[in-house]
Design brief:
By secondary structure, the protein is an all-beta fold. The protein is 0% helix and 49% strand. The strands form three sheets. Strands 4, 5, 7, 9, 11, 12, 14, 15 and 17 form a nine-stranded parallel sheet that branches.
């Protein structure tokens, strides 16, 4: 979050301005499929293990692990892989309207992906997309007209 100091007369000698809280990165490396994860505004969750449902509200979800479901709301970001790589979501994935799917593209065959829906058995859709896709060329790679990338790999 942000702390903004704006003093009307500044008799306290406190400098005016905005102070940004530092990002906090937490690694999730274990096999705990029944443990849910909550990712807040200044949090970065790096999942390389197996976990339950993930709720992201303003934070970042990344990694190469497996989660049961992922719901991103607010100004959240999902960034699969570890430059590049695949994050697996077994059931449902929701990208809210202010959230971003950030995919790094290293080459025509190496780029970030979400693998979604392998264990989905409900009615409706396993994937709900309302946000923004941000594709980033990685290490000088150039995307040319006609290049195709599968950012979501349904199972």
């Amino acid at each position: 979050g942000k702390l903004t100091i704006a003093s009307s007369n500044n008799t306290s000698q406190t400098p005016n301005g905005t102070q940004e809280s530092p990002k906090v990165t937490t690694e999730y490396k274990d096999n705990l499929p029944n443990q849910d994860i909550s990712v807040g505004g200044n949090d970065i969750a790096v999942v390389t293990g197996t976990y339950g449902n993930v709720e992201v509200n303003g934070g970042v979800l990344k990694g190469t692990g497996t989660v049961r479901s992922a719901n991103l709301s607010g100004t959240s970001t999902i960034a699969p892989g570890l430059s590049p790589g695949t994050l697996t979501i077994l059931e449902t994935f929701t990208l809210g309207e202010m959230a971003t799917y950030e995919a790094e593209i290293q080459s025509l065959t190496a780029y970030d992906q979400l693998r979604v829906g392998e264990s989905f058995s409900g009615g409706g859709n396993a994937v709900t997309l309302q946000g923004t896709l941000s594709a980033l060329a990685y290490e000088g790679f150039s995307i040319n007209a006609g290049d195709a990338f599968t950012m979501f790999r349904p199972q």
